[in-house]
């Protein structure tokens, strides 16, 4: 972590310990939307997810003096939230993950690739390669539409795939952090991330084809 980032987090932690209400409000505003999305993967309703997040913030206020800084503040925050979500009676899904993945099929339709006897086996077939994202002057406007499509598709993912994609691509957590938070293996994390990203990518491709 860069020194400026470390200094910024150190200052934030000090402000929270001093009871700085504005610092706490800023932290809540920054992380609550993502916390709700992640919590929703553990509980059955949005209302329960809101309760989990509320309990998390209370726990943060009560525990900030005991935070030792062995991990990033954000990692500590989400660790608390995940533990609270589990304590609400969510069934453990670790052993079911591989079964769900096996039943979900490939991330990309195999028919889009050249067959074994082809000159270039495994390569994209003609007209089947992924549609490139636009880099035209209109790209910024279309970019907002693509973000809406991506968020909508993200919400459709199976809970554990959504959690992994959110933590890796939205929160920017490292693979090891995600594995610790979700109590999954590194291999399982990679598969879940790949499948989740592929589903979102496919939705964006389909949208761009429709626009074209």
UniProtKB/TrEMBL annotation:
Keywords recorded for this protein, A-Z: DNA-binding, Sigma factor, Transcription, Transcription regulation
Keyword DNA-binding: yes
CDD domains the record matches: Sigma70_r4
Every RNA polymerase sigma-70 region domain range: 27-87
Entry keyword annotation includes Membrane: no
Ranges for domain RNA polymerase sigma factor 70 region 4 type: 151-199
Classification via InterPro entries: RNA_pol_sigma-70-like, RNA_pol_sigma-70_dom, RNA_pol_sigma70_r2, RNA_pol_sigma70_r4_t2, RNA_pol_sigma_r2, RNA_pol_sigma_r3/r4-like, WH-like_DNA-bd_sf
Entry-linked SUPFAM superfamilies: Sigma2 domain of RNA polymerase sigma factors, Sigma3 and sigma4 domains of RNA polymerase sigma factors
Annotated family: Belongs to the sigma-70 factor family. ECF subfamily.
PANTHER family in alphabetical order: ECF RNA POLYMERASE SIGMA-E FACTOR (PTHR43133:SF53), RNA POLYMERASE ECF-TYPE SIGMA FACTO (PTHR43133)
Name the UniProt record assigns to this protein: RNA polymerase sigma24 factor
Name of the encoding gene: rpoE_4
């Amino acid at each position: 972590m860069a020194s400026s980032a470390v200094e910024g987090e150190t200052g934030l932690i000090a402000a929270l310990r001093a009871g700085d209400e504005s610092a706490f409000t800023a932290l809540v505003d920054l992380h609550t939307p993502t916390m709700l999305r992640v919590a929703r993967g553990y509980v059955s309703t949005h209302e329960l997810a809101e309760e989990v997040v509320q309990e998390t913030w209370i726990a943060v206020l009560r525990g900030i003096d005991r935070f030792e800084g062995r991990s990033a503040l954000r990692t500590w925050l989400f660790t608390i939230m995940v533990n609270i979500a589990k304590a609400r009676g969510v069934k453990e899904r670790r052993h079911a993950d591989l079964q769900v993945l096996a039943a979900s099929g490939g991330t990309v339709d195999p028919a889009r690739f050249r067959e074994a006897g082809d000159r270039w086996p495994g390569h994209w077939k003609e007209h089947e390669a992924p549609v490139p994202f636009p880099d035209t002057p209109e790209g910024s406007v279309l970019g907002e539409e693509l973000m809406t499509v991506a968020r909508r598709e993200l919400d459709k993912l199976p809970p554990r795939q959504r959690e992994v994609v959110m933590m890796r691509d939205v929160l920017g957590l490292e693979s090891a952090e995600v594995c610790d938070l979700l109590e999954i293996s590194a291999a399982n994390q990679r598969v879940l991330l790949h499948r989740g990203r592929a589903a979102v990518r496919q939705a964006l491709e389909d949208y761009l084809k429709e626009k074209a």
